[in-house]
Design a protein that fits this description.
eight-stranded parallel sheet, 15 strands, three-stranded antiparallel sheet, globular, 393 residues, binds magnesium ion, Enolase-like, domain 1, TIM Barrel, single chain, alpha/beta
Length: 393
């Protein structure tokens, strides 16, 4: 079998707000076609026009090649060999950023092709279901422009998630910092009150995670607040510091009363090795598309397992990435939760319409998918409907 074409689809919601904090407004979906008539689907979470350029823009020399030129004509079954070749052929332009993200979308699609070709779900090709069920956590979405409404909406989301059968949830708590919610301005003391209110609402029998989205500039300031959360039984604290402050992460891993999680923005095992060995985080959060696809995410998962750390993947795109995340999670033993927001609960029309994730959520857990490949149903009308206007640079 040979790869005959890579179609890139840049998608955006009609009411795109360039200054909004949610990346659920855009997407790069790739369709990889083969001479056998099988098409694989992949996506990645980054600036979609930049990632598309990594695939389609002409190459200029042997270390800055076009990804299209690397993959076209090749055997889609050779996922590791192709990944390594693409990494080397883009060493001067890539190694990270949009090029690596584009490689991730293509690699995801190649695994979809392999699964479809042999009639097996992707997790079986990754080694089989090490876990028989996966516990998803609900992403709790606050609203409002003041702390009171923000707290109330989080509390009501948490109750709704628990009622829907979720055993775990992750709450945003971003009253300040770069991901500050709308025009909110809140103090660290108020953040503690918000977390306490949600914990009280869900009771003890619920795994609660807190994502503060790069809120603090240094570990000492973070510790002043989160050291007061020890009685709130927080499963992990996500991205408390700026992503490159690895020494700060190491200090938090030593001194904070809960697990520290990070990695949603990282590309490739090389960045994760730094996060694990210098940053010492307890929980690594590869996003399958951003990290470099299944091929590279599995390498990251093995690295974390060797070091006794957990994996809780990041996933904030459509059913394509959600399905990919679930396949990865079934194939590894050290993934206690995955991020899971069912399409029906999404505020992004693009996410609601584009794709069915093919997963069954029952009694608080997800069961292994049975269809070949990723097992998703892509809505081709939505692919057309959300296509961004052609852009020239
Ligand atoms: Mg996050």
């Amino acid at each position: 079998m040979k790869i005959t074409a890579i179609e890139c689809h840049v998608l955006v919601v009609p009411d795109l707000k360039e200054n909004a904090t949610s990346s659920s407004q855009d997407n790069l979906v790739v369709l990889v076609q083969t001479d056998d008539g099988i098409t694989g689907v992949g996506e990645t979470d980054t600036g979609p026009w930049l990632a598309r350029a990594a695939i389609e823009a002409p190459g200029s020399h042997s270390m800055a090649m076009s990804l299209k030129d690397v993959y076209l004509g090749q055997d889609p079954f050779e996922t590791t060999a192709l990944w390594d070749r693409a990494y080397e052929a883009t060493c001067m332009s890539g190694r990270s950023g949009p090029v690596l993200c584009a490689m991730g979308a293509i690699d995801m699609a190649l695994w979809d092709i392999k699964g479809k070709a042999v009639g097996k779900p992707v997790y079986k090709l990754l080694g089989g279901a090490v876990q028989k069920a996966i516990t998803p956590y609900a992403s709790l979405q606050p609203e409002g422009t003041n702390v009171k409404t923000y707290t109330q909406t989080l509390v009501s989301w948490a109750k709704k998630a628990k009622k829907a059968g979720f055993r775990a949830g992750k709450m945003e708590c971003t009253l300040s910092g770069p991901y500050r919610h709308q025009s909110l301005r809140g103090t660290d003391e108020q953040a503690t009150e918000v977390v306490r209110a949600v914990r009280e609402a869900v009771g003890k029998d619920f795994a609660l995670m807190v994502d503060v989205q790069y809120l603090w500039r240094d570990a000492r300031t973070c510790l002043r607040t989160v050291s007061q959360w020890s009685d709130l039984d927080i499963y992990f604290l996500e991205t408390p510091l700026r992503v490159d402050n690895l020494e700060g992460y190491a200090q938090l891993a030593r001194e904070a009363p809960m697990r520290i999680a990070a990695g949603e923005w990282l590309n490739s095992r090389h960045e994760f090795r730094q996060l694990l060995d210098v940053g010492r985080v307890d929980v690594a959060q590869p996003d399958v598309g951003r990290c470099g696809g299944f091929t590279e995410s599995m390498r990251v998962c093995h690295m974390a397992e060797d070091r006794g750390r957990q994996i809780v993947p990041h996933c904030w795109k459509t059913g394509i990435g959600i399905a990919a995340t679930a396949h990865l999670a079934f194939a590894i033993p050290h993934c206690p939760f995955i991020e899971y927001l069912p399409a029906s609960l999404c505020d992004s029309a693009l996410r609601r319409d584009l794709c069915n994730d093919g997963l069954t959520f029952k009694d608080g857990v997800l069961l292994p998918p049975t269809k070949p490949g990723l097992g998703i149903d892509l809505n081709m009308d939505a692919l057309k409907k959300y296509r961004a206007k052609p852009m020239t640079i």
